[in-house]
């Protein structure tokens, strides 16, 4: 089995394989991690992780200098060559607090090296010489079942970020979480996670195609309680899940990252700003979610018209509501803002100024909205 790669990535991989074949023929190269999973699933591959077996650290360091790769790992010989990460196989052992509190040792065989992976689907290895997949933990079967399963429970609990990784993988791959793995993750404390690491995993979920799977995992793994301080019931879940399934229809891709939090804050009647603070989003999230309007109980044409003064309705995160897109298209405000035709310069010529100008400008704009869109839908 050979990975299907974009041309630039294929050329880099071929060059590295030729390099080792010519200069270090005794070294065994394995493609590891998410690239093997994505290859099996027929997904696009953007970068590669390679582990080199049968070479000592000193010789490996010399080989990487000869190849022209750049060292990127402060611990244990990780190098980057283009879109390829090349490293020695390793064992990680928890010795301190936080995600940096690990001691690293050289792994001697593929099973030992793959044990440090979080989930079986990510523990697959591809022998780049024979083209065979090495599967010590049943990852191929779990992929077939669309299942997220922990590799080694003891190793898994050494890094609590892996609970959030299960959430975002569920949303990205449309996988469910195996029962024993779910129970293990529910018992784990998430209080040691740094703000940056929390947001990184949530951001991956925000851009995923199956948001309702991520929502379920977030609730089921108690992430919503431990990080967001939310207890979400069955009825609330199903309502939000229906709305999140419609996210795949969003035509404005630039708005996709904000959709999850918009639905969460709207359907739960919670402050979007407080949700942003809980997961440590950048300020752009706060700005955009504050600028958005929640979906009202009754959506009138007048409401849509007033909203289109801000932006074309294709940029409104509430566009998922029933018939809103069709109505926006009919009203001519889906792809462009509504122009009320009122200019401050005209009011200045009429003698308005200061607060009076602002008040009259708002009044005339609202009058224009009423005339154009009426009161009821």
Structural description of this entry:
The protein is an alpha+beta fold and 377 residues long. It has three domains: 1-140, 2-Layer Sandwich (Beta Polymerase, domain 2), CATH 3.30.460.10; 160-292, no CATH class; 301-373, no CATH class. It contains 19 helices and eleven strands. A seven-stranded mixed beta sheet has the order 3-4-5-2-1-8-9. It has a two-stranded antiparallel ribbon with strand order 6-7. Strands 10-11 form a two-stranded parallel ribbon. A hairpin with a 5-residue loop joins strand 8 and strand 9. Helix 10 packs antiparallel against helix 12, helix 12 (234-245) packs antiparallel against helix 13 (259-268) and helix 16 (301-307) crosses helix 19 (354-373). The longest helix has 20 residues, at 354-373. The model has no long low-confidence stretch (mean pLDDT 92).
